[in-house]
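Feature request disguised as a bug report, sorry. It would help if multi-protein outputs had a clear separator. Right now it looks like this:
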Amino acid sequence: MTSEVSAFAELFAGQYQSLVRLAGLLGADDPEDIAQEAFARLHSRRLRDDGAALGYLRVTVCNLTRKRLRHLRIARLYRTGPPSPMPSSEHVALVAEKHRELLAALDRLPRRQREVLVLRYWLDLSEREIAEAMGVSPGSVKTHASRGIAALSKALETS
């Protein structure tokens, strides 16, 4: 082993744990990786002063940690949530069939009951707004809604 390799191995053995602690204290999520990357950069670089190696390693750990935290902050800003689960094709078919059954049952209702239910549940109008739109009293709206819901429930139970 050459003296250069031996000096590097001694530096690694003596300073690796302290550099891992430094990266951890600075907030790195992967302090071991950062310390290893600092040593890899030192190994590929030739320093003029052999005594500057420890300073170089500390500065490199600080810079790499800062860079990593900045990257994580940006990644979190643009992170999307997990994709929403897709319903199975059987579920989609069942929902479509139930929707068709509901529309068919709604179509069989008397005109006023159908109008009241559509205005209430599809357009989300209040009883007063429905009464104004249909030109009837609010009591008539309540009656038609009650009878329409009862008829729909009965029609959908049998199907």
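(second protein starts here, but nothing in the output says so)
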Amino acid sequence: MNWLEDHWLDILGWGGSALLVYSLLQSRVLRFRVLNLAACLILLAFNAFIGVWPMVGMNAVLCAINIWFIVQLVRDRHDDEAFEVLEVRGDDEYLRHVLRVHGADILRFNPDFVHDPSDTDQDAFLVQRGDETVGVVLLRAEGDTAHVLLDYVTPRYRDFSPGEFVWRRSGMLAEHGYRRVVTSPTMVGPYYDRLGFQRDGASWVLSL
């Protein structure tokens, strides 16, 4: 206990510095901001205790910047104007480029996925945030049922649910005559319970 009492300030400073470095390793944009904010708060307190006021001021400004970005990111998570859904052909070259670039990561969450650009019963959607592609959804038609071949989100936006703009808000599925959506039973870490899907065995089902 005496050792902790003698070194608690050092622990605070080193802990804040370690958390700051760890935050910089995050690929998810929201997680980065939250961890960076926590680190800046710790370092603000540490520098206040030792009286290094320029560092207190810098960390206070960084806290304000992080809070502003966090508020913007959380507000945009479900904002129709933040994301746009673009329909493309299954053999679209840009779609194939996105699938190639993220191929290894796609297989982590969709281990059975194989893209067949010649599949004429396939509908493909890109989810965009500005000029950045943040998600890909591929469906195969079977009557009025859309079977999900791929529902992928890039690492930067994995704290978001851009797929919801395909399932609920874009209106594209109903325009294609779909009445049900059935997800792949092998998808790793599905999030569909938050979007109105109902569990059906190993899959999730959405009635449109």
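Even a blank line would do. Unrelated, but nice: The chain has a mean pLDDT of 87.
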